[in-house]
Amino acid sequence: MIEIKDRDLERELQFQASRSGGAGGQNVNKVATKVELRFHVESSELLTDEEKTRIQEKLANRITNDGYLQVVCQEERSQLQNKELCISRFYELLRQALTQQKKRKASKPTKASVKRRLEGKKKQSDKKANRGYRADL
């Protein structure tokens, strides 16, 4: 698989800046530092159909009804830093969505682990058996 960053997806990204919320005083009130990255998954020319369906399945909670994958950043005080942060998060999301997990191979427990488990159960059983009241016979 070709590295996702090498495909130059940045030309298909749309950015929108707005005023950031929260504390920050005059800077927050004047400067549009919050950046929203939008990427339309279906109309992308750089992704294969298989990759598009995989992204739509894995990132369904981040995709709007219009089909846009959204990433919002407002941690930094400058618009440029927030834009770079959005881009890096976007590529990380795509990398995670397109990475296939390995199939789990079933294996049997070792004899030693079975023995340890059974000894632990026997010890617990003895502990509980000794708790009860015993009348002298």
TrEMBL record:
Transmembrane segments: none annotated. It comes from Pontibacter populi. Its EC number is 3.1.1.29. Residues 101-120 have a biased composition (Basic residues). Belongs to the prokaryotic/mitochondrial release factor family. SUPFAM superfamilies: Release factor. This is Aminoacyl-tRNA hydrolase. GO terms for molecular function: peptidyl-tRNA hydrolase activity. The keyword Hydrolase applies.
